[in-house]
Each structure stands twice: as C-alpha cells, then as structure tokens.
Amino acid sequence: MDYQFKTIEKKWQRFWASNQTFKVNNTSDKPKYYVLDMFPYPSGAGLHVGHPLGYIASDVFSRYKRLRGYNVLHPMGYDSFGLPAEQYAIQTGQHPAITTERNINRYREQLDNIGFSFDWSREIRTSDPSYYKWTQWIFMQLFNSFYNTASDKAEPIDTLIHVFEKEGSAGVRAVCDEDVLTFSADQWRHFSEQEKAAELLKYRLAYLKESTVNWCPALGTVLANDEVKDGVSERGGYPVIQKKMMQWSMRITAYAERLLQGLDTVDWPEPLVEMQRNWIGKSIGASVKFTLAGMDDQSIEVFTTRVDTIYGVSFLVLAPEHELVPHITTDEQRGHVDNYIEQTKKKSERDRMADARSVTGAFTGSYAVHPLTGKQIPVWIADYVLAGYGTGAVMGVPSGDQRDYLFAKHFQLPILKILDTQAIEEEADSRKEGVYINSELINGLSYQEAVPKLIAVLEERGIGKAKVNYRMRDAIFGRQRYWGEPVPVYFKDGLPHLIKEEELPLLLPEVDKYLPTESGEPPLGRAVDWKYQGSYEYELSTMPGWAGSSWYWYRYMDAHNSAHFASEEAINYWQAVDLYIGGSEHATGHLLYSRFWNKFLKDIGKVQEEEPFKKLINQGMIQGRSNFVYRLLDENGVGTNTFVSFGLKDQYRTIALHVDVNIVNNDVLNLDKFKASRPEYAQAEFILEEGKYVCGHEVEKMSKSKFNVVNPDDIIEQYGADTLRMYEMFLGPLEQSKPWNTNGIEGVHKFLRKFWRLFHDASGNFSVSDAAATKAELKSLHKIIRKVEDDIERFSFNTSVSSFMICVNELTDLKCNKRAVLQDLVIVLSPYAPHICEELWSLLGNEAGTLSYTAYPTFNPEYLVEDEFEYPISFNGKMRLKINMSLSLDVKDIEQEVLANEDVQRYLDGKTPKKVIVVKGKIVNVVV
RNA sequence: GCUGAAGUGGUGGAACUGGUAGACACGCAGGACUUAAAAUCCUGUUCGCCCAAAAGCGAGUGCGGGUUCGAUUCCCGCCUUCAGUACCA
Q1: Judgement on whether residues A237 and A379 belong to the same structural domain of the protein
Q2: Which residues in 75-94 of chain A line strand B, with CB less than 7 A from it?
Q3: Is there a single domain that holds both residue A41 and residue A80?
Q4: Which of A107, A211, A741, A772 has the smallest number of Cβ neighbours within 10 A?
Q5: Residue A257 within a domain
Q6: Nearest amino-acid residue to B18, taking CA and C1'
Q7: For residue A259, is it within any domain?
C-alpha cells in the first residue's frame, strides 16, 4: 500500500478523540510541564495557513516533552468576546453568541484537521458565563483591594478602613488618586457613608474616575492606549478623539516597579522585554516646585531627570491643557494664549507628530521664582509638553536640552552655559562632563557630586524631592459595547457597589439592538427591566477585550471548577506556564495586563508565582505572497482581455492585477482555472513565454483582498496534515517572519513517502526485518536522536526537518528496513508527523495509542565514534584538499603526514611552510 | 530620531562555542523507466575564467576597514530592510 495519508490521518484523529489520548490529570508522579498557546479570537474568516505556525511548534514541543516523561498540560480555548462579532451583529441583527459559536465550530474543525494533541476536555471560552463569572470575580477582588506601598502588595480595602478609623489618612502609604483628602481618625468616623465610599474609591485597584479617554465615535467606545495606533483605532482604523468621561480604571501603575523588576526574571525575547520596559517608561529624577511670582500660594511642579541643570533654567513650559494655565494668564496675554490653545486642540495627534520640528508656544505673561536663585523666569505654554506625562510642566534648560534650545532660540530666551565643557553655539549639549559654572551651590562640582547635594538642599527647603516617574498610565477598563463581560456593579446614590459574590455571574442581558441608546448610553442601556434587586442601575459599560485573557491560563488548570476559578491543588501543581508561544503584537497589551493580574492574584494569596509565563517565544508572522497577472492596455489605456506573461510585460503597456495564489503553481498560472475564475476572464487570451504564463509576485500581508490567503484545509486535502506540520516547521526559524510560499511543500511530502517506503517492500507490503542493525545504520539513527533532542530544546524546528530528510536518505541508501532502527526513528519523528508515525507504530506491532507516551530513545555516543577523520587541509585559510587520517594520531604525526603528502607538496611548490596549525579532529591550516 | 531584529545562490534556508560557506529542500537543466503522462529514480546546479573531458584558477556571506594561522561568526564605521516607539522633560 502506498502512503494513504487521508485514511491514516482521519483514523488517528478519531482514535485520539475517542480514547482521550491527550487528557491530562492534575496529579502525577511525573514532573509537570505547561505548554500554552495564545488562544485565538475566533474570527469569521477562519484560520489561514499562518495561524497554526505557533500551534504546530508548541504541539511538537508538547509531544516531545511527553516522550521525555513529563506530565504535559497543553490546552486550547477561545478569546471569544470582541468587537468583530459585535460589528457583525450590528449589521445583521444576529446575536454575537450565535456567530461566535459558529466561528468556534469552524475553528475547531480546522484545528482538528491538523492533529494537535490538545486536551480538549479543558477547553474554555471567555464569553461563557461559567468562565466570565470568574473574570467578574477577579474584578470584585480588585475593587475590594488597595495597594499598600509599605508592604508593597495589594491588601484588602478593609485594612485601609481600619487604618482610617485608627489613625486617619496620615497612617496610610498607598497608591491612590492625587485628590485624596487629609483627615484624622475622628474626622473619618464623622464622614457620611457616602463620603467614605467616595474616598475609598480613590484607593481601590478597580476604580471609577473622571478621565480623558480615547473615544472612538465610529466604534462608539473607549479604547486603551495600546488599541490606538497613529491616532486611529487599531481595529478598523477609525479616528479617535480625546474625551472626558467617568470610567472604570485599573490601577496598574501601582505595579509599575514590580512589572519592571519581573522582566529580569523571565526568559523572554529581548525585543519584547525592551518593549515592556519602554512602555513602563521608568525615569529617575526629581520634582521641583517653582512658586509663582506674586502668587505665593500657587506653584508649578516640574519633573526633571537632570536636576543638576537647575541653574540653567531660563523659562518654564506648561502643557496647554495644564490646569494652572487659565489662572496665571495675564489679561494682556489672554488673547495669545487662548488662540494658541485653540490651535492645539484643532491639531490631531497626527498633525502634532507630523510637524514635531516646528517650534510653537505662547507666553502666559506670568513669572515663576527660581527656587534657588530667586530670579524671575517667564512661564510659557507649548504643545511639546504633554499633559499626560510627569506633571505636565517642564523647566526649560536650553543649554542641555535640544527642544528647550530650539524653543529659546525661537523666542529669544536666554541660553545659560552651566558646565565648563559645554559647547552650545550650534545646539544643546546634554553631556554630563566637566564641572558646573554659574551654579552657585554646585559650582566646581561634577555631575556625580552635584545631584545628591541638590536633592538634599531641595528636600531640606521643602521645594523638591527625588522622584521616580513612570510613563505607564492606569488602564481604562470600560467599553461602551455589548459583547463583553458585564461589570458586576450597581449604583446607589451615584456610587458604585458590588453585587454579592453568590449572585455571580452577572449575565449579559438580551437587547433589541447592539447600538447605543438614543440618549447615548451603551447598548446595555437597552436591556429591559435590567436592574439590581429591581431598582438599582447596573453599570452599563462592559469589560475590555483583555479582561478575559488576563487570567485564562489558570482556568485551564481546572476548567470545570464551579467553586473557584481554579482549585488550590491544581494551581499548586501546575504553578505557571513553562512555555508560552504567541505573536509579538501582544507585547504591551495582553502580556502586561496578564502579568499585572497575576501579581495581584498572588498578593491576595490565590496563586503562587510572581510571573505567569516563564519562557516565551514569539512566532514570526507569516506574510502573504501575492501573485500578479499583467493585463494588456490598449492605446487609450483601457484594459483588454489579453494578459502578458511576467518576463514579457516590460515590452507592453500593462497593469498588474492580483490573481488568486491558489490557481498558481510555482508562479505558473493555471490558464483553465484562471478562465473559470471569473466570467469576464472566460475568453481571456495570453501572451506566453516558453508556453507558460509566468506570474509576478510580491510579499504582502495575507488578506482576502490580495487573493493570497492559503487555507490549511486545502493543503491538508492535497498533502495531508503531517506534510503541513512539517512544512510549516521547515519554512525557517520559528521566530522569523516569512512569506508563505506553497512552492517547496512537495519536498516535505516526498520525504514522508520515502519514510513510509522504508517500512514497505517494492510491492508495497509492510516488511521489516528483525536482523541486527549495522554500524552505519545505528550511526544514522543516533545522529538523528541527538539532533532532534538538541533542536527541540532550542526551538530550532526547521533544522530537525532537514536532518530527518538526511537520515531517511541515508537509510534508503543503506536499504535499511530493520525494526531495531525504524522503531526508534518512528518515536523521534512522531512529534512532527504524529499520524504517519502512529500508523507505522501500530504496524510494527505496538499497542495503538501508546506511541504518545512511550520513551524517547536514549542517545548512545558510542555509535558516533569514528576512528578516522577526513581532515580538510587549507592553505592560508583556504580549503584545498582532504586527507583521511586516523583520529589517534597526535598533532605532530598529523603535521608530518600532511607535509609528506604529494598533493600538499604540489601546493607548496617547493616553498617551506611558515607554520602548520593542526586542530585535532577539525582542520589543518598550512601557512605559506 | 531612539530601541530591537535581520541582510548568505534563481528561491526557502544551513553552518550550534572563530575551523571544509551554500547542508536539506524548491526551482531549473539533462538522463533512465513508460506508447505517453504521472509517479519514481539518477546526474548536474554560488558566480566568473579555462577545458574535449578530468582537472585547474580566481572571486565570494549588504559595503569599507580591523583582529586572527583562519571570520557568515569577534571589533570599528557605513548602507539597506523589517518591527516597535515617538516631542517622555
């Protein structure tokens, strides 16, 4: 029998499913290993060939780990709340739950075709009430917690109340809003319940706050910073504006330092770690207060990383949105200032970036007093100062900062030299070399000496202090959408209250339409009679997309637990994800939020690990490879029905059109399929080269509109799942982005057929011999045993595939059909090509299904020991010939033998070598 | 601008700690089998020069330098591509 991949693959996929081969227990004598894929959002388009790349890699790894004796948790599920389903619902009126269910079924079918070893009994869906019950539960814990900076962890809000009752606000060290009140214990006790609740909200980790948000009118919702790219929404590309709204937020900034520190403890790709560091954006410096001249009770606080340049300050700049601006603008300047603010508002974020180099600003007319010199310095506003960063105000030091320099030049403000080595004729000089001049207290000191001295003085006088600033902002947690988790909160007297824990889950109510209400409330406002205890308004916004994905790896540990999000035993057993594979597009969203929730869950004693994902790998993006045909244009530039082959197109006037890559093979167009593809092409004519129509090609994003989408189902239909799996791995290094090109898949398919033939005689009958293996056969086998071991441990899957080919080529040449060799080879190949290996494993007489849990063969280095080596002999580093010599020869013998060699003498041409370098077992280099 | 990754045949890529550059495939060319095709198998395939052929010679891992007996690998400078980020004080 020939290699019948279709029958074999269906057979084993059914076998695995009905025998629950990959179901895993939460108890085992074996060591545990947790391999996780970033779960997909089930979109309507289904999977294309790029999606499974990471899943295949993680599956190979999981199967390998099982063979190495690990108890492997390898689950899959769906991130099934999200915008596309809702947009579709708005257009069609179909409930998102229905389309989501349909998409999930489609995904599952496609995933099953590839032969993954997922434990499907643990499948989760974030939109399932039994799942989002626990997302809501975690929200409640966040609401009931505050961040105690003294203990450096989250603690119950009751602890805070207790402190307020005993010591008032003075005893508290917590991360909180800026506008918290100062009160004594006595005052606290006299607060009304209302006042207390309002004050506590300023401390909770999940809190309501009036904040400026990214409002997307087209989507009718708020977006997080990482969901906005270049001033438009990441999904859909709609304009985003700034708007003030009452919003749920997550106090992720409380964890900024721990999120930063944790990065040193994880094994993640450097670029990704770097992105998170930048996102957190820690900068160490000082805050300094500048009192306003003539207004002793008003001061401007600035943040600076170069407090040493304080004597070089010649102006202050506020963000146009800064709250002091209206107060300090003098009447004479008000026109200018208002005008400038108006202009800034009109500029979109895009414009502001576009003319980043032009200098603009307006003088407020007010002056601040330099805290050390007492000199008056003008206060300006300019849009290069951002309201959202630091204090929204900077001290202008033109000698040390290029933007300040340009600003000072433009508005003719003084530029003061403050270091003796500073060169400021052309531009600012930010170096810290030399000693300070014109700087009273620190004159003659170096940078290292000046900073501590200044900080000490500022602190002593109460005008400044050392400060660490983070770029990261608290995360907005509300979306004015339907298809998300309802927030388990109702409002009483305008203040939020949690529903009771036993009332979870708070189910998503039915609505008549998935649009905002006439009064502009979110879709949930349409739900009829949806009130807590029949009378209190529920929160009408839902949670953002990242809520459900910020803890899902714990649910897999114990997916059906109805009493806890996962049992303590399960969490203690599985602990954290050992290997996480997914795309780098989640670098600052999902991966940051997940780490945040994980740290919180640890603080409240629910989980063990500070970091949830020990090792992380980013699979590269699979890009599309588009094909083009070239339509001939007539003299008027109108398209004809004639198409010119790629090599001839420059001789004609043509226009390039995308053509479906599925009717192109190795860039050669299938003419019949092309004619059949569209009615207008039925009569198409072609100008061919060498009888063929050759298409042009280009690498682009894989998308329907570019006709370059390749569906894994089609590949599987033609070549089988094992071929698809191996080919995806063969394409190149996992982490590298690369275009999908079906050219070349034949090679992998041929390899599998060749592998199959090792076990079969010329007439296709299964035939293996029990004879003892020869030295050459064992060498081949043990080479691959070691190679695959090495490769998988360093995630170099592509090189394994090549090595398998080499091995099978060698065994074919040796005409090897020995069980002693082939049985082990089946085990080694099985993580990559599980179906064919299961079939051969059972043909070899092994019990069906035991392959997945058998032991990986032990590598024996003895089989690789050689007693001879063919030494490459190079002259001045250039390899010229090879000489076979015994490996027992020592360096001297080798040198002698090499120099005695006739060919070597010929190369030397009578000259005496200057030196002969011999590296035993490697190379000989003759220096002439 | 800054940060990170990467530049190797016609194509995907290999060379793991400085030691035979181009493994393994695709494609292409030629051949065997076949009435024919498919499938399969064999041979060749970095480029240039030389040759009937065997062989030989020269160049060669983005570009220019350096270290070294020896560099795709290490160092310095530059160029290009991709990704992230963007007035961060």
Answers
A1: no
A2: none
A3: yes
A4: A772
A5: no
A6: A877
A7: no
Q: A752 and A656 in one domain?
A: no
Q: What is the pLDDT of residues A720-753, one digit of tens each?
A: 999 999 999 999 999 988 888 888 899 999 999 9
| Domain end (from A863, A888, A904) | A863
Nucleotide nearest to A790 (CA to C1'): B16
- A264 domain residue, yes or no: no
User: Structure tokens of A133?
Assistant: 């019950």
Q: Which domain holds residue A334?
A: 282-470
Nucleotide nearest A277, CA–C1', reads B3
**In this structure, are residues A232 and A239 in contact, taking their beta carbons and an 8 Å threshold?**
yes
Taking the CA of residue A792 and the C1' sugar atom of nucleotide B78, their distance in angstroms comes to 38
Whether A815 CB is under 7 Å from strand B: no
One domain for residues A361 and A453: yes
Q: Note whether A307 and A244 are same-domain residues.
A: no
Pairing between strand A868-875 and A464-470? unpaired
| ipTM confidence score | 0.93
What are residue A616's phi and psi, to 5 degrees? -135, 140
Query: Do A809 and A913 belong together in one domain?
Result: no
Residue pLDDT, tens place only, A121-177: 999 999 999 999 999 999 999 999 999 999 999 999 999 999 999 999 988 999 998
A270 in a domain, yes or no? Answer: no
Eight-class DSSP state of A356: T
| CB A922 within 7 Å, strand B | yes
- A881 burial via Cβ count (<10 Å: 0-12, 13-18, 19+): middle
Provide φ and ψ at A395, rounded to 5°: -90, 130
Residues 442-501 of A with CB under 7 A from strand B: 469, 471
